[in-house]
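Sample 3 of the quickstart, ligand benzoic acid:
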Amino acid sequence: MSTFLPGVPSRRLALRPTLLALSAAASFGAAQAQGQPPLKVGLMLPATGTFAALGDMIERGFRLYVQEQGGKLGGREIQYFRVDDESDPSKATDNVNKLIKRDNVDVIVGTVHSGVALAMARAAKESNTMLIVPNAGADALTGAMCAPHIFRSSFSNWQPGYAMGVVAGQKGVKRAMTITWNYAAGAESTKGFTEGLEKSGGKVVKDLNLPFPNVEFQALLTEIAAQKPDAVYAFFAGGGAVKFVKDYAAAGLNKTIPLYGPGFLTDGTLEAQGASAQNMLTTLHYADDLNTPKNNAFRKAYALAYKSQPDVYAVQGYDAAQILGAGLKAVNGDIAKRDQMSAAMRKITVDSPRGKFTISPAGNPVQDIYLREVKGNNNEFRSVAVKSLSDPARGCKL
Ligand code: BEZ
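Result:
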């Protein structure tokens, strides 16, 4: 799918005249930062496996924002270091230490998989390295494991799950089933859904799961057909989401039992899912057709740079770079002033393609969660499912 060469900036973006004009107007702070060496950014993302496309999108979004700033954040050139984490928690500590100990990076950006991200957070805390999570929703990252230098530009697993539970309740769902991979993200997403559904008296009658990243769904689909719930809530993403949505439709279940999910079920997957995903309802902090100047500009710039359409993962990568940029700007590029930088990052309002959002004291976005409907290759906005939703940040002590 890609004409994108990691490490090679798009010439189109690098040379745009508006960006040259912006750098000509560089602030005194940026001038101070000029004497400093490049800022080392460690990107730890999946480049292989079921989440590979998600990692690619995040990197593209991150680099797009940096290019729009003339290749610098807070006046500092950016030097990238990359590790493929393979979405494998058993390799996560070794992988993150390649960035922390071998490459000596200033900041880590990653990753997609919650289990990998939890290991990254432990290593980041031990070494006092700043970590910006551009996807993984593990609740503990901005809950029990929260730390002054840990931020997330995406969501907690609880957020879209809870919103979908609220919507399902409003639609009269009384008996639901859930199905997911057996790991932190699946468990937390379905827990959020259950909590939202129970608010209106509905309940989850059975939770089904299978090991990550297994996609042999047949036996579980047979069980759903036998139980006949009012609705099914599924957490899958990437290649697994493509296969699940297609299998659900091939079994004929989409005709009688609505399939709901967090937006990962249909984001970045629609071309491959085709007819099987049409009219599906999901909840997420982004919708493709948000008609705002920021989203329109972002989508145009992304399409120009990469000759393809962005998705929620690209937005999260773009916003990770925005958050880092705001922090660096506050300290004129001097990342040694980490406490001052982190404090500034908690005060910003991020002007995101998803809409403006703030950062909670625990470091997680406080954001609107949208109800979307699949039409063609787009997740179209239908309504705001829950306004300014803040993660409960259970167990966070700063
Ligand atoms: C997670 O592991 O947290 C996750 C992976 C893909 C999409 C959303 C969440």
